[in-house]
Structure formats: structure tokens, C-alpha cells
Amino acid sequence: MSAEVIEERSPADAPPPVRPRRTRVRELPEVRWAALATAAFLPALALDLTGAPAWLWAPLYAICYAAGGWEPGLAGLRALRERTLDVDLLMVVAALGAAAIGQFLDGALLIVIFAVSGALEAFATRRTADSVRGLLDLAPDTATRLTPGGAEERVDVSALRVGDTVFVRPGERLPADGTVREGTSDVQQAGITGEPLPVDKGPGDEVFAGTLNGTGALRVTVDRDASETVIARIVSMVEEASEHKAPGQLFIERIEQRYAIGMVAATLALFAIPLALGAELTETLLRAMTFMIVASPCAVVLATMPPLLSAIATCGRNGVLVKSAAAMERLGGITRVALDKTGTLTEASARVRGIRVLPGSGLTEHEALALAAAAERPSEHPLARAVVAAAEERGLRLEPAADFGSAPGRGVRAVVAGRTVQVGSPLALLDGAMPPPERPGDPAPPTGGGDPVRTDVANESSRTATADSPIRPATTDDLIRTATADGPARKAVDQDDPVRAAVAEVEDGGATAVAVLVDRRPAAVLAIAAPLRAGAAEAVAALGQLTGTPPVLLTGDNKRAAARLGEEVGITDIRAGLLPQDKVATVRGWEDAGERVLMVGDGVNDAPALAASHTGVAMGRAGSALTLETADAVVVRDELAAVPSLVALSRRARRLVAQNLVIACVCIGALVVWDLFGHLPLPLGVAGHEGSTVLVGLNGLRLLRTSAWPGAARTGRRAAGSETMSGGSSHP
Questions:
Q1: GO CC terms for this protein (predicted)?
Q2: Which CATH architecture has domain 349-433+501-529?
Q3: pTM of the predicted model over 0.85
Q4: Which value, to the nearest 10 degrees, does the dihedral of the CA atoms of residues 624, 627, 629, 635 take?
Q5: For the segment 582-592, what is each residue's pLDDT rounded down to a tens digit?
Q6: Active-site option among 86, 164, 340, 602
Q7: 142-228: which CATH number, 3.30.70.260, 2.70.150.10, 3.40.50.150, 3.40.1480.10?
């Protein structure tokens, strides 16, 4: 497409912040038809009640019937053609039946109330969609793209491609997701991540489309197409969620048809039997039509989806994507929470804290790190990113990697500069490794099948795991543990095996040990650690209070590092050294025992457990693509405190569903009893039926209020405070 060169503008000329557009009432056709029906009904009512001739009010009633009844009537006929009985058609038939026996006023009143109720429902549904679709309005329509020669050109956002560089002036909104190439600024991204304060951005930082640039100018490299931005993904996921109905809604829809057929049969019986016994035609027909109206399950059908969809929309506005109404409903029913360690309880941006080059490897620290980073570069695991980042910070040149292979929970393997490099778990890699080359004075390695101490301890650990916990494999801690009291045997083993000595030293320091093998020989041990996420301890306490069960830590990391983290966040049940299949077995064990498990993770190795759990939540900013696809919900802003807020909001939505069902059933039951055993006027029956439907719909939309998410967050904080107080009181 053509592009036009633009002129420089000052910050004062920058476009103002975009406000999400909301649907106006008069834009909806349902509202316009309901307004026309009401406008015709009101003068007709006045003329009819004052005794005016029929030729004055009859045309107005006809307009009212046509304006308010043609659309639901047509929809009902189409449904009937597909052998589905639509409640809307029954309402229109009841109105026409009233007109047929001369009750024009009652029929018109039914049409007007029904049309107004439908208009309110359509308006509420559109506002729910607006609250999410409005995010798209945050992104600008055009962007300033920089040409290879440095010139500026104004192009549509849809014309941007991955790798393009865009220039963002102060006060402008970012046109695409990308990485800052040049410049520093503060960016307000509350609409995407929910962070209330602007975030400082500089070279290398990630930015999102639709966020508002502050006082600095930025050059940003586009990382995603317009259809793949965070905003577009939020909208897409919420729209998909609207199409996936909750189990309660599916159950209601399954019985709705049978109920509707039974209701029609009861209506015919209520009309035919008294008429056969000599009852008066008009009174019998009015009673039967009133019964058909008040017994219609409109309010019951509307009871479930509005609260769940409102909760999904509120979550989307606050940086949490829930993929379906079924997932939102399941979140409120969890009884146990399992959390991953790296990237979930800790920041995803782990850092290499130290490099232990092993004797006899012939490598320097920089050489060992360069080989490890070259092998890890194709991986998306948080620890792999830490290794690559450490090499880049040191300015090391990374050779291309060939024959890359990855085994979740174990590590990676690649050929770098003609050498086979393996990087990963010491437990997984060191057992099959060749010993380091001998140095003068080193004792000869044991023969006859490897290290007898390692073998004996590993076998003992395996037997212990089999007896006590069939899903827990031996950890590196088990492999190097030979004494528990004073540890002399362990020290002796460490002296004989520098590899395990290095691993033990790293893990004793609370870091994660990563082994580096070159041509199957141990070359180095990397110490990697990540800072604890802000609010992790409070989130853990809140989740424990909400579920009534202490959260569990499931990690593939070593036992000592996991235990140290558990102490910091308040988790006592720690399952360390787990491979992906072990996490799955743990989760399935709980599920088989009747627990409903919420799994929270971020890496590829968490994806199987997320799929096996009752509900899975992924940390979205640094989560792997597979994990984001597998999870039922995604925390875009990577704030762990959002998880208890999400659970609390889901439970509130479930309570609203229960309230709606009670309101609907009580109203329907009361009106049906009144009609059967008393005399319920048709207008009053219509008002009661439609009033209950509107009440249920509006009650379900309460979670769209801006106070809904802060309220859920306060519930989580109160739960955390209660958990802390109860935990503190249990210790003298």
C-alpha cells in the first residue's frame, strides 16, 4: 500500500489518549423496535381506556404488535423449522391469542414488556462485549515506520511486519507489540497488564500495542503482527470464551426443550379440560395463556451465562485471560493449588550467579558459558534464557547450534563448533557422563560399572521413593547424600567427585545447579537463581485460605533450593526433582482422590500437568507457547496476586448464578401457583415474568462494574491476612 511521508510534530501535537467506544442505546435495532412498540402502545392505551372509537386505537395496537413481535416471531419460526421450540415464539402466540379474543390491551402489553426486556438484554450483552472490544480501540490506526534509510512514513498498523522499526513520540500510543531498540521512556500499560503506575522502558524491554508512551521517544522493533498482539489475543480469547458454555448452562439447555414441550402440553390441557367441562372460553383461554407465559423458563436460561461472561470480561480488563465460561465456573470449585517454582513463584528472568569450571575440562569460564548458551539459545525455558542472557551480557560470541534436541525436565543437547554440548539437570545428565580426564595425582576412577557410592545411594533413594511416594524420583540431593548426622561420608565423596562437590555447593547456596557436558564429559556447573516474585508469600497464603488446603510446590529443581524457596513463601509440602510425568502423576493422584486441582505454571514442562489438572493457569509474559495454549487462564501481567483474585471472582460469579437460579425458580413457581389456584391477570403475569428475567440479567452483569476486580483482590488479601494470623497463632 502507499505510504506518505509525515512531518515532525512536537509532543503537544500528539494525539490524546483514546477512550474505548461504548455502544449507544439507539444504535441497537432491538432498542429501536422496542421504542417504536412502546411509542405506539402508550397513546393506544390512553385512547382505549378513555373509550375512544376503535378506529383510533386499533391501528396503534397493530403497529405495537408488528414492531415488537415481528423479530422474535421470525426467529421462533426459523427455530421451529429446525424442530426446536423457541420460548420467544410462545410469547408472540400468547399475544396473538389474546388479540383473537378481543383482549387487545393485554396482548399489546405482553408485546411491549417482552420487547423492552429483549432490548435490555441485548444492550447488556453488547456492553459486555464493548468492555472487551474496547481494548482494540486503544491501539492507534496508523504508525510511524522508519525506512532503512531513516526516513519516516505513516502507514496503517495492519501494514506493519515483524522486524519493522516504528518511531513512537511522547504521548502517542504504541502501535504494535515489540522490543525497545533505542530510547528510554515511561509507558502507561494499565490497560494491558493492570499495573497502576507507568513502567520505565529502555533498550531490550518489551512493550505492548495500545499502551501510552510517556515523556521519551522510542524506536521499537515490531515482534508480532497486528492479529497476534496481546490486545488482539485478549479480545479473541474472550470472544471464544463466550462461545464455550459452562456445564450449568449446557445442562439447562438440555432440559429446556423438554421443559418447553411439557409446558405447551400443560397449557393445552389447562385450556381443553376446563373447556370440556363447560368453562367459559375467554376466561379459560386467558388462564391458559397466562400459565404459558409465567411458566416460560426465560429467567432460568438467562441465569448462568451473564455472571460468567461478565467475570471473564472483568478479568480481561485486568490482564487475566479466561478462555471459556466453563473454565471460569471450574475455577471457583478448586480444592487444592499446585505451583511451579521457576517462572511462577520466582521471576521468569533468572540470572546466572556463578560458573564453576570443573578440573580437567580445559575450558575457561567464558568458553564454558559460550558453549552452554549456544546450545540453549533455541530453547524457551526460563533457565535457558538466563544462560543466553549471561553470555550476551559478557559480549560472548555464540556459535550456531546444530542437531538441537530438548527433553522437558532433563535439558538440551546440540552440536556447537563440532562438539556435543549437553546442558540441563545434573540428575539427568551426570549419571551417563564420562568422568573428567585424569590429572597427575588424581585417583583412578572406579571400575566395574561406574561410581559405587553413586549407584548405592541412587538405588537406596529409588527404593525409598517407591515405598513412600511412587511418583517422586531420586533428586540430586539424594544422590550425594550418604550421611545425615555429621556428613563425613558426604565430604569424602565430594572430595573424590568434584562434579558432585560443585553441584552440592551450588544447591547449598539456594541456587539451581545446571550441568554442562562437552562430548559427554562434565565441563562446568552453572549456578542460576531468580528473585522471588513480589507478593508471592501473600498469594500463597490467600490461595491456602480460599481452598482450605495449603498449596503444594511441584518443581523439577533440587530439593535444597526448593526447600529454601518454600520457607520464603510459606509452603511446607514440597515435591522436588519432578519430571513432567511426575507432576502429571501427582496431579492425577489428587484428582483420583476427589480433589479439584488448580495448577499454576509457565514452562513447557508444566504443560502436561496443566492439561491433567481440573483447571490450569499460566503465567503469560514469559510462558511457553505450549503452556499458554494448554492453560484455561493466562495471567498476562505475571502478577501472582492475580491468581487468588481470579479464584475469588469465579466464586462470586458462581454465587450470582445460584442467586439467579433461586430468583428465577421462586418467581416462576409463585406465578404458576397463583395462576392455577387463584386468578392472575394476564398483564400482571407478563410483568412478573419479564421483570424476573430482567432482574436476573441485571444481577448477572454486576461483575462488569469497575469495583468487581478490586473487590475480588480485597477478598484475596483478607484471605491472606486470615491465613497469616491463623498460621502465626499456631506457633507459641
A1: plasma membrane
A2: 3-Layer(aba) Sandwich (3.40)
A3: no
A4: -90
A5: 888 899 999 89
A6: 340
A7: 2.70.150.10
